[in-house]
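REQUEST ID: PR-0412
SUBMITTED BY: lab tech R.K.
PRIORITY: routine
TASK: structure prediction, single protein chain
INPUT:
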Amino acid sequence: MSENVEIERGRTGRIFYARVHPNEDLVQGVEKICLREGVERCFLRGSLGSLTDACVSLSTGKIRVLRGPAVEVVGLAGEVLPDEDGNPVATLVGLLATPDGTVAGGRFVAGQNPVCVTFEIVLEEWLAEPADVRLAPREGLIAERLDNDRLRA
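STATUS: complete
OUTPUT:
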């Protein structure tokens, strides 16, 4: 286990039911929705849709391309976090099935996953609190910040 474990506290903010339009990239579409709505962090909680073609990165680092005409997204999960400039960056992983029965899964490559008809998504905004809780290294204790200078184990 790494000694630099961070536990983030926060709460659910707004819930968005949104649509990514035909020929729009799935990953970039999610980022665009977050930018438009002022969402800094969120989780993808549900989805329904298909892609014209799909391109995913496998755990080995290889890229897998699946050709349509309609690649079904059987399962989708992900999150959006801000980059160093505050822009939303979506990390989406999913399970795919082609019309001929080929099944594959991986991380969606931004700019390479055009939506077929439409793609419906549910996003849960995450409102992170300042670092109030952290895991104390080595001891394995949860330490709670009482103020800026003192910690209680």
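NOTES: Residues 72 and 103 are 10 Å apart (CA to CA).
REVIEWED BY: pending
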